[in-house]
Design goal:
By secondary structure, the chain is of the alpha/beta class. The protein contains eight helices and seven strands; from the N terminus they run E-H-E-H-E-H-E-H-E-H-E-H-H-H-E. The chain has one domain: NAD(P)-binding Rossmann-like Domain (Rossmann fold, 3-Layer(aba) Sandwich). The chain has a seven-stranded parallel β-sheet with strand order 3-2-1-4-5-6-7, with helices on both faces.
């Protein structure tokens, strides 16, 4: 579906980002992945171009985007998946954790979008940002995560207006997804207990997989979503219905 297209996926070395990169490669896109660690290693495993980059750093983001364009000659798709999490009650949340989470999720999404705009306008491309159900419902301990994911929704809607009609800009809001970050080094029994507790609220009775999220991203990047912009696609197994 994407033969001849070039995609940049941030946070592409693991989890949802890696799943998205693998799906786009399977659809014949040329894919660059960016991450703070293991980008080149994972790129070699999946057949992508890997770049080590911190998306919260303005200069690194500028070099990242220009490097992708220099290598492939164009940029059609930007998928922002880079993230980190700090889940503690507000009373216990440090300013450092608040700021670093804000920097990666919201500032990082802004910097990557801004750096890519000119190239995407030329290509009449697409942007998909990663929000979360936390943007809508929140959970105890999720103050900064909820705040940044809600901010990404707002940024997505503004960009959809500003870049129309040439660039479609949408977001995804995944529910609980089985990624290394979600597991957080839990042992088998501990992971199973967490999984069982979490899927009680999921009508489809399972965790999402990166492939589930990647399929939705591929749809938003593809031709069948040409009349969709400024939307947030909930991918939650029914946990959150908007």
């Amino acid at each position: 579906m994407f033969e001849g297209k070039v995609a940049l996926v941030t946070g592409g070395a693991s989890g949802i980002g890696r799943g998205v990169a693998e799906r786009l490669i399977a659809e014949q896109a040329s894919v660059a992945i960016a991450d703070v660690a293991r980008a080149e290693e994972v790129a070699g495993e999946i057949g992508a171009f890997g770049v080590s980059a911190d998306v919260s750093d303005e200069e690194q983001v500028a070099r990242l985007v220009e490097g992708v364009v220099d290598r492939f000659g164009r940029l059609d798709f930007l998928v922002n998946c880079a993230g980190k999490a700090a889940f503690v009650p507000v009373a216990e949340l440090s300013l450092d954790d608040w700021q670093s989470t804000l920097d990666v999720h919201l500032t990082g999404t802004f910097l990557c979008c801004r750096a890519a705009i000119d190239h995407l306008l030329v290509a009449k491309g697409r942007i998909v940002n990663t929000s979360s159900t936390y943007a809508y419902k929140g959970r105890p301990g999720g103050s900064i995560y909820s705040a940044v994911k809600a901010g990404i929704v707002g940024l997505t809607k503004v960009l959809a207006h500003e870049l129309a009609p040439d660039v479609n800009v949408n977001a995804i809001a995944p529910g609980p997804t089985d990624t290394p970050g979600w597991r957080r080094s839990l042992s088998g029994p501990d992971f199973e207990a967490k999984r069982a507790q979490r899927i009680k609220d999921v009508p489809l009775s399972r965790l999402g997989q990166p492939e589930d999220i990647a399929a939705a991203v591929a749809f938003l990047l593809g031709p069948e979503s040409s009349w969709i912009t400024g939307s947030v696609l909930q991918i939650t197994g029914g946990e959150f219905m908007l």
